[in-house]
Amino acid sequence: MAKDDKGKKDSKVAKKAAGARAADLYTINGPKVERKNKSCPKCGLGMFMAQHKDRIVCGKCHYCEFLQK
Ligand SMILES: [Zn+2]
Q1: What would the DSSP string read from start to end of 12-34?
Q2: Which pLDDT does position 45 carry in this prediction?
């Protein structure tokens, strides 16, 4: 095995995509904890909407809101 091959493998492993974690969905602002993303009006406060370029979508019920420019 060449050293170059091992280097390429490591870079692929590091690029593995991770799902949204609780720490990514909230910001701590002093004594307050604020939600970064809007929650779904159909599913309730626990279900966050995914932010896309032109719309926000609920991953559970697929409720979609288009953002107006
Ligand atoms: Zn929903």
Answers
A1: HHHT------HHHHEEEETTEEE
A2: 87
Ligand 1 center from residue 19 Cα (angstroms): 18
- Report DSSP state, residue 63: -
Length of the chain: 69
pTM exceeding the 0.70 threshold for the entire prediction: no
Task: State the residue for tokens 């690029």.
Answer: 15
User: Which DSSP symbol is given to 4?
Assistant: H
Distance 37 CA to ligand 1 centre (A): 13
Q: Are 49 and 58 in contact (CB under 8 A)?
A: yes
Helix (H) or strand (E) holding 3: helix 3-14
Residue type, 41: P
